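Quick question, first post here. What does this chain look like in 3D?
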Amino acid sequence: MADLLDYLGSPFVLRALLGLLFIAVNAGLAGAFAAFRSATFLISGAAHAALAGAALVLVAGGALARTDISPVLGGAVFAIGLALLAAAARDTQGQRETDVTIGVGFAFSMALAVLLISLIPDQAARVWGILLGDILLLSPGDLWVLGLTTSLVALCFVIFWRPFLFITFDLEGARAFGIRTAPYNYLLFALIGLSTAVLLKSVGAIVVFAMLAAPAATAKLFAGSVWRVMVYAFLIALLSGIFALLISNYLRFSVSAMAALLASGSYFAGRGVVWLRERQVANGV
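> Answer (accepted):
Ran it through. Tokens below.
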């Protein structure tokens, strides 16, 4: 017990817990709306676009490449750029072309990232760190970036809450009321891209999809309202991270990978519960 208390009281774990809180907020906001808009694939595409952006900043060299923040900023620019392209495709040509745009952007970003990594062997470890992530290695500077970005995302959702709901659940009705839906659509997709990019340092490009998309997908199975989906997604993401931290004290697993495994596993468990309920209803139980 004393070892567990010492572990939980260490600066690394305390920073990780604060980071998990920010991750859960992003899951409850950006992750939930990505699920509502059937745009969860954007999270995966934006994550790999951010990886390419981070690698490009490191290749560029100079003073910016010697900071911990600049690769994240470069990643955010690339992730938001892909999100805006996806929003443009959605606005003009529909869901199918949106998926094509994200898929091509995904492939382009991965190819670019691999090419850039080959040019910076001395910086490759930093790029792979962004690819894999480790929430226990968050620095105070990382937390400031994560906290400020999460606050910005949350503020945008508060300010534009009604338009976001309108364009998400009744796009044609919003247009009929004379609302210019395109700017809100672009902003919403950009916020999803920004949330994805800023989480790379903590959970990595490989598992960020699980931490943002899986909690909302699980919440949609049981929640009967928008608010409940968001709250459930927040709690699933937060609890997955906390349990991962506790498990890592005994088994020494990667916390980020374990949190992603628990978050995504919750979806399959939820699907199992729903299936059992449907069987019981069908059998008249």
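The domain at 2-282 is CATH 1.10.3470.10 (ABC transporter involved in vitamin B12 uptake, BtuC).
DSSP finds 13 helices and no strands in the chain.
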